[in-house]
Write a structure and sequence with these properties.
This protein has 797 residues and is mainly beta. The chain has five domains: 242 residues, no CATH class; 90 residues, Immunoglobulin-like (Sandwich), CATH 2.60.40.10; 90 residues, Immunoglobulin-like, CATH 2.60.40.1220; 126 residues, no CATH class; 204 residues, Jelly Rolls (Sandwich). Helices cover 12% and strands 45% of the residues. The chain has nine helices and 51 strands. The strands form eleven sheets. Strands 34, 36, 37, 39, 44, 45, 46 and 49 form an eight-stranded antiparallel beta sheet that branches. Strands 35-38-48-40-41-42-43-47 form an eight-stranded antiparallel beta sheet, with no helix packed on it. Helix 1 runs antiparallel to helix 3.
């Protein structure tokens, strides 16, 4: 590509050579030291006598044992080829390096019988069309993006750690005419590599480097893999009908211009927008004249829409149902296939209709007392016109109306509230010209002390917790219950709404619980029951009731996960629908990277999510900014040797500040945090054998700045070794300017360190929980059958 890229490509090439030589991974910004080949590693490479090299051939692969230095020489040739190819795929230097690789293969008897280096080089030249004509220097510097590059009718070169697949990629020839038949498919996936690709007809291209995966269809070319511990590398070059690469870092040529977006109507932050407005208008444009797609959503929902393959122009979406004196947000997303522009606009409608405010009970309020005797709201008209109103409830607990009333509070008497019941109430008001219609709901508190058998329940079972599994006396402990029970299958409601937990028999006290999953077809129940206390001397006993066709859901997740929990994610729902927080804090997340229902798999405690290590992650709005202490605890499962973040805090626009908790390369438990400068750079590691494909619990506790950090693995405390001896001695991000939080990645411009494998049951608390609590959680969730037992069914007497 153009000359201004040379420095970037040379730098990447040097890094690739070092990384392939010493097999060391790092996270950008996580350490202030450079990655180098140590003297011991250099000595090891020098002492190696042989390398194993495989040439990808038509039919079975051809493997040879060659001198170690010859393997290093071939690897060096491929790195030089990558740099030359990136600058100009048709340059004399590129062709000479290709010839050197082919000559080397011929000299080492790696080519198929009857084929020579000259024959392959000739065919490569025939396949190529002029490529240099697209290299127009317009003075713009190429920009770096994380993303995907793809080209039709292209030439490319790729090299990196690992191997390409399948191993059959060298073309076979048609007899007589000696014309090559392209192989259908070649793919590669590497933790560190470089791929340079140029479109022969499109006059575009890209360079992908860092962690990546890609494939080429209709490939015609040649490739090798080299095995010389600690080196395990591949290299290939040739042509393809279509090639696509997704990479940690992506450089496009010409540099892509993202779409531009501007509101047309209403303007951003516009006021007094008429209620008669029927559409939102916006203008999109792209300096590259790329076709664009857009989508629009509104909050509160008054309409939305999308469009595909659009050119520069003004577009609109229909809206309806605007309410008086209401602020609306409309979010527009525009993509040209490479870059995405997202913007949010707001407007406020004119105040002409009656205004309803200051309601009692609050909308969506739960645990409203059964003694509540009224509903109330403030009613006024912006023009001080007299207002007519009506109020209705469902189920019917009262109603009311008024004619030509002035501004002030309206109170409607209600009576006959039933426990654990949701009530809707509707207010219709009009000044004779403009109407206002509002709907609210609240839920009444449950009865806490009662005998379930006298209230319609038909069956119960005793649950006994083994006191020897409890590490220390605990209060308000959420116990994990998992059972497959034919009695539940036969007698409980199909949705499990009648499942109930009590602390004893007869008149007893209700226990707060959350049903994570219930499958009536198998009788499988996964639930979390909050127990007031766990005893280390005596067994703890409580009861599971079921078999009541007349009741609605008895679970109250927000009571299970109250203080100190700030967020609890079971990761048990379709990621397309959002990641749900079980606490009242509503710290729900959004999946990234195209996660779908196929990523919802069997986990440690019910379902969990599978992360691909490329671009899957879950993002959240910042919610720990007021915390100076805390706990992060999670279940993990992986076989990957790559860096992966379980929980991260970062800034979307810059690489610092950040905090990451997860695993480093190979099997190291890892914690890193950097603000600005070396004095704020902390990174700790502990080799702990976590990459075995088994479930493990990890936890990080902070007692606040100056008070220390603690780390746990499978319920046991462990110590990290700190880089340069810099122990951060406790912290959370209450004093840092981060703006994103994430599961499965570090959400910042570079080095996102995506998790490869499964994650389950991730929790954030605002206090450091005790070591006994963590050990008891591990015992309960790792082997629930040893932690408790469930007795036989006891029918209603």
């Amino acid at each position: 590509m153009k000359k201004s890229q040379k420095t970037c490509i040379m730098t990447v090439g040097v890094v690739i050579i070092f990384l392939l030589s010493c097999n060391v991974s790092s996270i950008s910004g996580a350490t202030s030291s450079s990655t180098t080949v140590t003297l011991d590693q250099q000595s090891m490479l020098t002492k190696k006598e042989h390398a194993v090299i495989t040439c990808y051939m038509g039919g079975m692969p051809q493997t040879q044992v060659i001198p170690a230095q010859s393997g290093l020489y071939l690897q060096e040739l491929f790195n030089k080829l990558l740099q030359a190819h990136a600058e100009d795929p048709n340059s004399i230097e590129t062709q000479e390096l290709q010839q050197q690789i082919l000559t080397y293969a011929e000299q080492n008897d790696l080519l198929p019988a009857g084929m020579s280096a000259a024959t392959i080089q000739t065919q490569l030249q025939k396949q190529g069309l002029t490529f240099a004509s697209r290299m127009v220097d317009n003075g713009a510097s190429p920009a770096l993006y994380e993303g995907t590059g793809k080209e039709m009718f292209c030439n490319f070169a790729s090299a990196g750690q690992g191997t390409a697949f399948p191993i059959i990629i060298l073309p076979r020839f048609i007899p007589f005419i000696m014309s090559p038949i392209p192989r259908l498919f070649v793919g590669w996936k590497t933790p560190i590599g470089v791929t340079s690709c140029g479109g022969l007809l499109s006059q575009t291209g890209f360079i992908a480097y860092g962690q990546q995966q890609g494939f080429a269809l209709g490939f015609w070319g040649i490739g090798f893999s080299i095995f010389l511990p600690p080196i395990n590398a591949y290299g290939m070059f040739g042509y393809a009908l279509f090639a696509k690469t997704s990479a940690e870092y992506m450089e496009y040529w010409p540099p892509n211009n993202p779409p531009e977006l501007n509101p047309v109507y209403p303007l951003d932050e516009a006021a007094y927008v008429p209620l008669s407005t029927t559409e939102l208008q916006f203008h999109i444009s792209d300096l590259d004249n790329d076709p664009m797609s857009y989508s629009v959503i509104t909050t509160p929902d008054i309409g939305g829409g999308n469009g595909n393959l659009k050119q520069d122009g003004t577009y609109s979406i229909p809206v309806s149902g605007l309410k008086s004196l209401t602020t609306y947000t409309w979010a527009v997303t525009v993509s040209d296939g490479m870059d995405t522009t997202e913007q949010m606009f707001t407007f406020t409608t004119e105040g002409v209709a009656p205004i309803i405010s200051d309601i009692t009970p609050l909308d969506e309020e739960r645990f409203v007392p059964l003694t509540q005797s009224f509903i109330r709201f403030n009613l006024r008209d912006p023009q001080n016109d007299p207002v007519d109103y009506t109020v209705e409830t469902s189920p019917d607990i009262g109603s009311g109306s008024g004619i030509d009333v002035g501004a002030g509070y309206v109170t409607i008497p209600i009576s006959g509230l039933q426990s654990t019941t949701i009530y809707h109430w509707f207010v219709n008001a009009t000044d004779g010209t403009y109407p206002t219609v509002e709907e609210y709901w609240f839920q009444t508190e449950p009865v806490m002390n009662f005998d379930p058998f006298t209230e319609g329940w038909q069956y119960r079972k005793m649950v006994t917790i083994d006191h020897s599994q409890v590490i220390e006396p605990l209060s308000d402990f959420p116990v994990y219950i998992q059972t497959v029970d034919n009695d539940l299958k036969n007698h409980a409601q199909s949705d499990g709404d009648d499942i109930l937990f009590m602390d004893g028999t007869g008149v007893a006290h209700r226990l707060w619980f959350e049903t994570e999953t219930y499958d009536q077809s198998t009788g499988t129940l996964v639930a979390w029951v909050k127990l007031p206390s766990l005893n280390v001397i005596d067994d703890t006993v409580f009861y599971l009731y079921y078999g009541n066709a007349e009741v609605t859901s008895q679970q109250f997740p927000e009571q299970v996960w109250d203080d100190p929990y700030r967020a609890v994610w079971h990761l048990n729902n379709n990621p397309i629908e959002g990641i749900i927080d079980s606490t009242l804090n509503n710290n729900d997340g959004t999946s990234q990277g195209g996660m779908t229902s196929s990523d919802l798999v069997t986990g440690k405690t019910g379902p969990c999510l599978d992360f691909d290590g490329i671009n899957d992650c879950i993002s959240f709005s910042e919610f720990t900014e007021s915390m100076n202490t805390g706990t992060c605890i999670a279940w993990i499962k992986t076989t990957s040797d790559e860096i992966g973040v379980v929980w991260g805090e970062a800034k979307k626009t810059v690489d610092k500040p950040y905090m990451a908790f997860g695993k480093y390369s190979n099997d190291k438990l890892w914690f890193a945090r950097d603000i600005f400068g070396s004095t704020s750079n902390y990174q700790g590691f502990k080799s702990i054998a976590m990459n075995d494909g088994q479930w493990h619990q990890v936890a990080w506790l902070s007692k606040g700045s100056g008070n220390g950090n603690s780390f746990y693995f499978d319920g046991q405390q462990t110590s990290l070794s700190w880089q340069d001896g810099y122990d951060p001695n406790g912290m959370w991000f209450d004093d840092q300017y981060t703006d994103t939080q994430s599961i499965g990645a570090l959400d910042r411009p570079n080095s996102r360190s995506h998790w490869t494998g499964l994650l389950d049951e991730i929790r954030i608390a605002d206090t450091p929980i005790s070591s006994g609590w963590i050990a008891t959680e591990y015992a309960n969730q790792n082997t629930p059958s040893s932690f408790y037992s469930i007795g036989p069914e006891e029918p209603h007497p």
